[in-house]
Recover the amino acids of this structure.
């Protein structure tokens, strides 16, 4: 089987051809009125027997190929057949800009695949927080996303350090949380 990796489609097509050939041979044999074999005697000619053996061998090859494919599917990330476990930990942190209208970057935190970084404007904020993907955009109300007190947003990104925040009121902050596979 090791030399037939990647040829399961060919084996499937040839198996279908073998089965069709077997039916044709059996039908042709029934058409020619041959006497019935004696009890305990196998009544197949050599060509039919070889064809049935080839079908049996092809079926084994298909089963082995299917087993290899299913084994390979276990290694597919995301929505593969095997479900991924949820991360065991999470990280939460507060970002408090110390200068009004001056952008500050979030700390480096890896975000697991298919999970989100949640950024929430603190509930006691008096002003608006602005988030963007760089410092210049975070300081521009026309190119940033505003968050009012107690409002949250989820970002499916690879790392928290790609996010910048700005406060238009001194003392306002955001709190962030993200699931972590490891610290």
């Amino acid at each position: 089987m090791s030399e037939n990796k990647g040829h399961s489609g060919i084996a499937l097509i040839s198996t279908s051809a073998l089965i069709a050939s077997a039916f044709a041979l059996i039908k042709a044999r029934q058409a020619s009125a041959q006497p019935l074999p004696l009890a305990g005697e196998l009544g197949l000619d050599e060509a039919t027997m070889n064809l049935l053996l080839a079908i049996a061998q092809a079926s084994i090859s298909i089963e082995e190929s299917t087993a290899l494919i299913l084994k390979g599917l276990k290694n597919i990330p995301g929505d593969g057949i095997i479900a991924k476990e949820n991360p065991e930990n999470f990280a939460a942190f507060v970002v408090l800009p110390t200068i009004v209208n001056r952008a500050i970057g979030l700390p480096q935190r890896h975000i697991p695949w298919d999970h989100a970084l949640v950024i929430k404007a603190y509930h006691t904020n008096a002003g608006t927080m602005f988030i963007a993907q760089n410092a210049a955009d975070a300081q521009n109300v026309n190119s940033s996303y505003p968050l009012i007190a107690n409002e949250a947003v989820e970002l499916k990104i690879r790392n928290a350090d790609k996010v910048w925040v700005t406060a238009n009121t001194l003392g306002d902050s955001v709190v962030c949380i993200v699931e972590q596979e490891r610290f």
